[in-house]
Amino acid sequence: MERYRILPDMTVDLDHFETRYEGEMDKKDGKKLLKEHNKTLRDLQEVMFAEHKQKLMVVLQGIDTAGKDGTIEHVFGDVNPQGTKVANFKVPTPRELDHDYLWRVHPHTPGSGEIVIFNRSHYEDVLVVRVHELVPKPVWEKRYDHINAFEKLLADEGTTILKFFLYISKNEQAERFLARIEEPHKRWKFNPGDLEERSHWGKYQHAYEAMLSKTSTPWAPWYIVPSDRKWYRNLVVASVIVEKLQSLDMQPPEELPDIDSYRKQLIEMIGKAAE
Ligand code: AMP
Ligand code: MG
Fold first, then answer.
1. φ, ψ (nearest 5 deg) of residue 172
2. What tens digit of pLDDT does each residue of 80-127 get?
3. Ligand 1 site, CB within 6 A
4. Whose CA is nearest to atom 5 of ligand 1?
5. E strands within the chain?
6. Which domain holds residue 145?
7. Lower CB density within 10 Å: C or N end of the chain?
8. Best CA proximity match to 121, nearest among 159, 162, 157, 158
9. Quick one: the chain helix, strand, coil %, rounded to 5?
10. pTM for the complete prediction?
């Protein structure tokens, strides 16, 4: 999966990346492997919660319909909600806009033993904000450096950061909008404003390229995930997360030294209760 990782000195041209996986693995095998990863992730998160030491922040970005919600469902669906959170970043409120753009982000970062999935993130402040010039260029262009410094602070204080750009083709997006309209249970997701956003496709591609080129750091790498095929997208994200968590070598807290005396006491209590 390391082939999808963006190295810090890379200048990203999205034309050179695939949106659709065309490799050897088929969907059936991919889904089977994902199921295994789901189980492994469930176990890893349990140890993580018990150990109360590591913190994991997963950032998901991508154009409308790229699959941020679906990734959360299919990668984290088996994980115990205890210790796992999703942070959604929507249009900032007036109060949020009265502060710097990272003000609303910091409180959502993971604490010890926690996983937090960022469904959108502070990167909107160099994406939608850049595309629509919601603040002038001299303001947004400084943000790449702020973000790298902010993530360095989190990493220095013990947070593991993984960032995924879910990359789909323009055609795939149209298909997915259509599916949202055609399938009644998906219709609530269709927002006519998203079609307006689609008309800025080229500008978004540039903004993503700048983000990926400037903010993939050794302490917070970006992965460009080919996302036209949903099963492959899920598999890449799950694999990267599982591999990273395994490398942290987490351990549950040490056993109590006097565990045997507690065992004896409990056996006695149960014996008495049965009398
Ligand atoms: P959704 O994720 O589909 O519920 O939509 C959330 C919307 O909030 C998207 O259109 C984002 O572009 C927008 N959004 C998120 N963060 C910001 C931000 N910092 N500034 C402006 N719009 C934002
Ligand atoms: Mg939306």
1. -60, -40
2. 999 999 999 999 999 999 999 999 999 999 999 999 999 999 999 999
3. 89-92, 120, 124-125, 128-129
4. 90
5. 55-61, 84-88, 115-119, 159-167, 222-226
6. 2-274
7. C
8. 162
9. 55, 10, 35
10. 0.96
Q: Give the side-chain half-sphere CA count within 13 A for 78.
A: 14
124 CA distance to ligand 1 middle (Å): 7
249 burial level (CB within 10 Å; 0-12, 13-18, 19+):
exposed
Q: What is the CATH number of the domain that holds 30?
A: 3.40.50.300
The first and second tokens of residue 52, run together, are 């109360």
The ligand whose atoms approach the alpha carbon of 191 most closely is: 2
C-alpha distances in angstroms, 25 versus 20, 21, 36, 231, 244?
13, 9, 16, 11, 22
pLDDT the model gives residue 275: 81
Residues 6+ apart with CB under 8 A from 58: 115, 116, 117, 118, 162, 163, 164, 241
CA of 88 to the centre of ligand 1 (A): 9
